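Bench log. Compound arrived from synthesis this morning; before running ITC I wanted a structural hypothesis for how FE2/S2 (inorganic) cluster sits in the protein. Inputs:
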Amino acid sequence: MKASNARDVASRIDIRAQVLANRPVRGRYWRIVLGLPRQGMDAFARLTPGQFILLDISSVGLPEQIPPELAEKANRHILLRRPFSPMAVRSTATGVELELMYKVVGPATVRMTSLRPGQSIQVLGPLGKGFSVLSTMKKAILVAGGIGLPPIYHLAQIIRSDHGHIMVEVFLGIRSASELPLDLDDCGQVDWALDIPVHLTSNDGGIGIKGLITDCLQDWLRTRPPQDLDGMIIFGCGPEPMLRQLARIASNNGIACQISLERYMACGTGLCQGCVVRCRQAGGPVYRLCCQDGPVFDAAEVLFDDHRA
Ligand SMILES: Cc1cc2nc3c(=O)[nH]c(=O)nc-3n(C[C@H](O)[C@H](O)[C@H](O)COP(=O)(O)OP(=O)(O)OC[C@H]3O[C@@H](n4cnc5c(N)ncnc54)[C@H](O)[C@@H]3O)c2cc1C
Ligand code: FES
């Protein structure tokens, strides 16, 4: 085992968490708050944006209401724990709170909607490598597509609280207004809860600008004077085609870029070798593990499917 792996293993913990709140936001999006006792404090209070946890949903029952299109899927057994990147981490007097945003897409996430305050579930984490923020950075462009939002939201909070000199601009792309993963404030604006400019696009134009968020980013970059790109970094999380396009935009503009990738994760801890990411290396392509070397990668390192080398 590599020295860094030994460190990762030492800092992770498998612990019982109590559900403190669980509510629908809109459409298929829900937010859940988990309370971890004091023993979890050391490990989880240090969870960096982009790191993830594994939730054991295997013993959670089905809710009374199941979206009809998921009725068949919902009855499947859940053998594996499911990965989630928290959208907020809060230290409290009694321990630490993890807030997650989840989209109901299958048997585990359908069951999660039945969790009520007071119930408990098993949580393993923190896992993987998150986004890294350096003091040399001057402007952070945070790009999220749909349910890629949670780690980006967390990152925005951390930059605001710990790296006040870094300017932040958010680009959020969704399919339609019904898929907006955040609440709207009293003015009907996206309630980002942080004083950060937000560029919003939707595929159908029902909310924000009509189109893709990567096109919106490209248009915005075209209006920037060259000196603005100095010290700029793009952080992204969302569907892989969006991340591939982000990597291209960053490379074409000479901007650093970190992206959080998704893979099916059977173990989440480097054992099953099932979550490979094809990466560039001087001697030829190499395979890295999304759960251990990622999920956050330097975009220039990742070989996307259209980059067979
Ligand atoms: C590092 C990481 C962080 C994540 N963070 C979040 C988060 O904050 N909020 C959230 O809602 N989801 C997140 N996910 C995805 C989440 O783990 C899956 O949506 C969840 O496991 C689905 O479980 P299920 O049993 O409900 O549906 P499943 O039946 O397991 O999946 C339903 C459908 O979702 C897709 N899917 C499921 N898991 C993945 C995956 N890992 N990669 C690509 N496609 C997948 C597939 O199309 C599948 O058919 C994250 C995934 C990873 C790898
Ligand atoms: S999920 Fe098993 S090695 Fe990554």
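What the model suggests: The CA atoms of residues 157 and 175 lie 25 Å apart. The pocket of flavin-adenine dinucleotide (ligand 1) is lined by residues 52, 73, 82-85, 100-103, 105-109, 147, 150, 262-265, 295 (CB under 6 Å).
ITC booked for Thursday regardless.
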